[in-house]
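Notes from the pairing session

We agreed to fold both candidates in a single pass and log them together. This is the raw record for the first candidate, unedited. Please don't reformat it; downstream parsing expects exactly this layout.

Candidate A
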Amino acid sequence: MTITKTSFQELLLRKFDSYRVAKKALKNPFTGDNSENFGLFLPQKGFKELPKTFKAGYTPHTIKDVCDTVAAAEAVMDFSNARMKVRWDNGHRISFQFGDTVEITPGDRVQPTFDLSCGYDGTSFKVVCGLFRMVCSNGLVVPVKDTKFCMTRLTHSANLHDKMPLLISEIEQTVKGISEMIGYAKNLSEKKVNFEQIYKKIYGERPETGRSATNWDNRKSGIEDIVVKESASLGKDSTEWYNGLTSAWLMVNAVQGYYQHKSSNTAKRTPFAARDWANSQPAVAAAWQAVAA
């Protein structure tokens, strides 16, 4: 869907108007008194109860929080020809692809993207903003991880609203660095690295025996498979790989993709789930450092 700047706020409010939530104390089924647990209800949907229960400290976000966050992005992004997806899935799920895709290497493109996932299902108020790589061996998109990549999560606590300015500031700084991110990605695509050497810089030398050795081998094989498949799909010269070489760009994305692809909830998640990011962050950070050396 293509939107204009003037219609965006109205569209969001219209889409989610009937999904305003109310937090209510739940009754103890035995005594009839209020329990320590709270539920979230949709008053305009016949007080339909959402599946997750919470403690008293949980502060649900509002449609205003959603609109304010996107308005901040809108102020620094060109949304005039944005492609937008909006859906309700026990929370507000919004995704924008703005601007044109940019070719890093032939057939390998990235897309400036802004994703907002604000669930009432125990997940956080999460913003992902940056470049998303459109080529992936199983069709998923992969966010480019760099210092200018923004992934911010706010918990639904009493100070949620106080933290919104920090989130908005991070969005603004990320968007201002988009051009720098593109240039850095192109430089990595031209840099050749030795797969074995980079892998050992990230994960260390192979343990001699035991489960640790098996995990080391399996992880290496999984990352190799991603590099080989993506190299083939992009028409890369196989001679380089036979000599143990690949591009720094493919290497870091293969490391990140390894963790993303193995997730057990692939079909349900947003482009990069919080659990995947937590698992991969040390290794991905090490990969960026290794290829930059």
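Candidate B (folded immediately after A)
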Amino acid sequence: MSRETRDILEGLAKANPVSNEDLLDSALEQEERLLFERIRARRAETHAGVLRRRPTRMIAWGAAAVVVLLILIFVPLLILDGRSAQNTAANQQTSTRSTQTPDTHTPLTASAGSGAPQTVTRNVALAGIIRLARDLELAHPSAAAGASTSGNLIIEALAMNVLLPAEGPDYKLSGVITRAQYALWLWRAFGSHLSAKTSFEFKDIGSLTKEEQQAIKGLAAAGVLEDTGSEFNGNAALGPTAEQVLLERARQSIQVRR
């Protein structure tokens, strides 16, 4: 019997003396009541602790869900950004490898321009010459009127003697055309139709072929090439601005002679 029970018994005996049997029953009843109160109090404490822990667990689970959601959203985005950066770098490297010497020579260009340097391929240059010949009704009558493919361009250029059979069969139309090559093509296409205006020579054309030198001199005499006191720089790549300037000057020279 616990000390508390003994204290209860002594108190009951002093307050209301009864038989030992009744006293024992009363003590046991008091002890059961105390035990029951303790159990109920402990259960209440346990329940309160569970309630206090539930919000913490809910917050923890919520935070974990947010982290997972962020991972699912941002990881694919990071992967896509990485692939995009790799593609951009590859494109830049390809562009750098394909860049040719810019055409900044004054006699062929109206202005240097502020954009990125550009070049003209041989097929584009050939198509422009043939287009001008058609506009001026100078194209060969046997040439295909709708020539647009490389094969048709070659056929028409051969008919106009812009290209020569000995230079083929690979005319490398996908390659970049130089200033000297373009001058030669212009002269072959329109030399006999140009009107002479003046005479001057570039000092740096001695290393070019004799036919290229003759073409440059003839275009200069017709005013298609202008004398600015600078070098011709025939091995540099032709730019699109220079191409348009030359074609327009050739048109004007031919129209004057007519």
